[in-house]
Predict the 3D structure of the following.
Amino acid sequence: MTQKSQKLIDGLQEARLLKDSLIPRIKAVRERGVVPTLAAILVGDNPSSHVYVASKCRQSQEIGIKPVPHFLPADTSAQTLFELIKKLNEDPRIHGILLQLPLPAHLDARPFIEAIDPRKDVDGLTLTNMGRLAVGSGGILPCTPKGCLRLIKSVIANTTGLHAAVVGRSHLVGNPMAQLLLHAADCSVSVVHHLSRAPERLCRHADVLVVAAGVPGLITPQWVKEGAVVIDVGITQIEKEDGSKMLIGDVAFDEVLPLVRAITPVPGGVGPMTVASLLENTVELAESYGMS
């Protein structure tokens, strides 16, 4: 086994293990007469979004979750989208509602996210669920941070008291990741962003480094503590000299690899775990159906 393979955190394998663990839970829920059901809303014709939604629906179906996709044209009005969300909120057969982002430019995502019943907010993005995360009182966890934490725990079972640094403070990843590391992993947490002073120093002291800045190759060896666990959430498509395209992360992978204890590849690291965590959230919502 090479040094590289020993250090890689295999997101595909971890996602497979998580999905396999959901199958008996889905069977148990179905035996109660409840079919776990995920409604996915896609507005517009963004090619990447279509690929993502198709993958989420396919993987749902493979393990026994019923996907219900809704494809709306790019010129869909706000009223039409609100009406669809209201209809799904009121449908007892729907356990999770996924609003695929980004929306077309004329639609501001936040009001539509807030229109989703927090009890069906499978992405954990409503202010209700984000607030519960911020105070450590549970709720539905955002999929990417949830998946990242599982990858970290696959390497370090006990994270109590470790120093974690999160690069990026977006509402989708950076901010909830920091909250999850603080409350669920019991880490001391630094949040590093474009206004931080000496960001390299903050990151260099981190036992766990999660990078979600959206800046390809930002993290070089000067940012990384020897023996750290590095989770690279960033993914950017670039064109090579020969005209072919490739995906790269926010971490300069080849340069950083010799330093780290473990690192996620791009692709094949965080992405599969995001989808698996979405499916886990759907199952959790179905399990809690009728319990409150």
About this structure: DSSP finds eleven helices and ten strands in the chain.
